[in-house]
Write a structure and sequence with these properties.
CATH architecture of the largest domain: 2-Layer Sandwich
Oligomer: single chain
Structural class: alpha/beta
Shape: globular
Largest sheet: 5 strands, mixed
Order of helices and strands: HHEHEEHEHEEHHEHEHE
Strand order of the largest sheet: 2-3-1-4-7
Number of domains: 3
CATH topology of the largest domain: Alpha-Beta Plaits
Radius of gyration: 28 Å
Number of helices: 9
Length: 383
């Protein structure tokens, strides 16, 4: 049949008809329904996994395949896995670690890389009010110890890592990602002992890697015990990436190291530097023993400066291991169990609040320290 417009109309037999055995699915009402009982069963919290397991069982039965309990356990584990919520508390002192992509030596020690990283760190620290206590920039990763007085740590890290990545791409003429795809490691330091140990750990990292014999020999960006709370860098704007006409990027900027505020009652400045120096000496001795046990040859500062930024580290390093979220230091068993209980209570309260929020209860109270839901959805957070 031809219509008046010249287009051939399809015959009724040619029009696809709905299959009664497979009815047209109804639109998903979403999570904004006031009454959770009116949702389809597949969208109700707690029932999706049961329905999916039954569906998989029916499919395997039709294919004459046996559904092993191990397969069900794997499916439920993957279905229930979610990113752990971040606990962001104002005033926390943390150690931050992040690797380059596939451990390329993109941060090889040289004046240009040092200037780029220090300038970016100073700009971001001033923008978000973050206090910097120690920093070591290895050729394949960064170590930072900072205090976040205002609870802006995720914004600070996002800004810092983005600018460092873009600047490194220009400086090294690098295509592709700069950072590894894993999230940065952020470890809250909950005791004075943990802060002292991690300050020494950051300084001793080049020794642990078998690159130099002493922390003071590292040719790149680092901090030594006598510089804690004393050192100030005055950094000129790098010639690459940062636009001289943009007022956000000053010609010069200062970055001063501060002492962790949480240690004011436990240490004075001199005692803290002495405690970190003793801990650094202990960790260097342990690192020397490990280097001898593995029969490594210390690379030395001269060879480190000649590394190609486009090569990868070849030493073995385990991947996908545990990613701790807090540290309490040696001999702090009571603090450890208190920290575990606090973290479990936070995650439990967060998940309960999230289930209620998904059910439409928008005024549910989330636990103190909730970050992403507060920033993205404006949920109510306990104070």
């Amino acid at each position: 049949m031809v219509s008046g417009s010249g287009l051939r109309k399809p015959s009724p037999d040619a029009i696809p008809q709905p299959d009664p055995r497979n009815p047209t699915p109804q639109p998903n009402p979403g999570w904004n329904r006031r009454n959770p009982a009116t949702r389809p069963a597949a969208t109700r919290p707690g029932l999706a996994s049961v329905i999916e397991v039954e569906r998989i069982r029916q499919v395997r039965l039709r294919k004459r395949l046996k559904l092993h309990p191990r397969d069900v356990a794997r499916f439920l584990l993957l279905l229930g896995r979610m990113t752990q919520p971040r606990l962001v508390l104002p005033g926390s002192t943390v150690m931050v670690t992040r690797r380059t992509l596939r451990r390329h030596h993109l941060f090889r020690p040289d004046p240009a890389m040092r200037q780029l990283y220090l300038y970016t760190l100073a700009v971001c620290a001033r923008e978000f009010g973050v206090l910097v206590h120690a920093v070591t920039l290895m050729s394949t990763h960064e170590h930072l110890i900072v205090t976040d007085p205002n609870g802006h740590l995720p914004d600070f890290l996002r800004r810092l890592h983005r600018l460092v990545a873009l600047g490194t791409k220009v400086l090294r003429k690098w295509e592709g990602p700069t950072w590894d795809h894993e999230r940065p490691s952020v470890v809250r330091l909950l005791t004075e002992q943990a802060i002292v140990e991690k300050l020494a750990y950051v300084m001793a990292n080049p020794v642990k890697a078998g690159l130099v014999r002493r922390a003071r020999e590292w040719p790149g960006l680092t901090v030594l015990p006598q510089e804690l709370g004393r050192r100030t860098w005055r950094i000129a704007r790098p010639e690459v990436f940062f636009d001289a006409d943009n007022p956000k990027w000053p010609d010069t900027i200062e970055l001063s190291l501060t002492l962790p505020p949480s240690l004011e009652g436990a240490y004075d400045a001199h005692a803290l530097r002495q405690a970190v120096a003793l801990e650094l000496d202990r960790q260097e001795q342990l690192a020397h023993q490990e280097v001898r046990r593995r029969n490594w040859r210390v690379l030395g500062a001269d060879k480190i400066r000649k590394l190609s930024p486009y090569r990868r580290a070849t030493s073995f390093e385990p991947r996908r291991g545990r990613n701790p979220t807090f540290a309490v230091g040696r001999g702090q068993q009571g603090a450890f169990f208190r920290a575990v209980a606090e973290l479990r209570a936070f995650r439990r309260a967060y998940r309960q609040a999230l289930e209620q929020w998904r059910a439409g209860m928008r005024q549910v109270l989330f636990p103190k320290g909730t970050w992403s839901m507060c920033q993205v959805h404006g949920v109510v957070v306990s104070t």
